[in-house]
Amino acid sequence: IDIYSKKIGFFFNKSENIGSFFGLFLTMVYIFISLILFIYQIVKVIERKEFKVYDTTVYSQEIPSITVDINNLYFSFALEHPKTVDRFIDETIYTAKLAFIEQIKKNDKYVKVQTKYLDIEKCKVENFGKNYQNLFVKDELNNSYCIKDLNYNLTLAGNYKNEKIAYMRITIYPCVNSTENNYTCKSQEDIDYYMSSGYFSIILKDFGLNPSNYSFPIVPTLQDIYTTIDKSLYKNYILNFGITEIHTDTGLINNNIKVLKYLQFRKAFENFSFRDEKDYLKGKSVILVQLRLEDTIFVQNRTYTKISEIFSRIGGYMQLMNTIFL
Description:
This protein is 20% helix and 45% strand. It has helices at 21-47, 130-133, 188-197, 277-281, 307-325; strands spanning 6-9, 15-18, 51-59, 65-68, 75-80, 87-88, 94-106, 109-118, 120-122, 145-147, 154-157, 164-174, 199-209, 218-228, 233-249, 257-274, 287-304. Strand 15 and strand 16 form a beta hairpin. 18% of the residues are buried.
């Protein structure tokens, strides 16, 4: 076979192909290069290494909601020492409560429908899962609170723009002597020291995005978030979470969209107001932390090279080689 044979013209508008060794060599080079390019492109399609990514943010018209459990929303929290910034649990200084709250709007005000308190205990690093255990660089969890029931299943829903809202709430109270705690609180001076210059800290399981990994586009990460506390302030600390969706076109020939949906931390903000010290001395909360949804959905779209594109590219390469060799 010699596709580069020499053409000889005759008087009657006819021609014939006369083969040559050089033309045979060029033909073999042409076939070899085409085959290598075809195999290379097919391997890229199979290994899913060539892709395009574009991101969009969608504002939800409906009430956003997502079911949360230990896999997508698990966290530890505690107060931190004013000087060493080490976490500590000490019920003679403060107590903590964790609740799941549902509210509906009536007459422009939110009314509680349900308040479900969740038991907490000292954290165990294994409860965070194998992918997260090596992310802890020191013993933060030894002196932190975590959810005790690992089989919890709750639905976060809405925000204060919606008629219905469901969120988790952490509340920190200064210790106040009473018959319930057998008057075991530390001195008021000691408690004031921690409540006036200490910190509230929370570590969240979270996810990052790695679009280059076809099979596992989610990367485990930790969010270490903290804020100050002050006995003279009533502080409301809000942690906003958003729904993130990864849309992956897995089709080799036709479009075949698969959607991965999960919860991701977005931002933290706070508001506060001054209060009478009498409220603090009565044991009212020094900080209230809400974990709730925002109304935006982040969508990441991944598209991969299809077989039809491969044939189109190979055709282009072949046309280029014909232009060079002929």
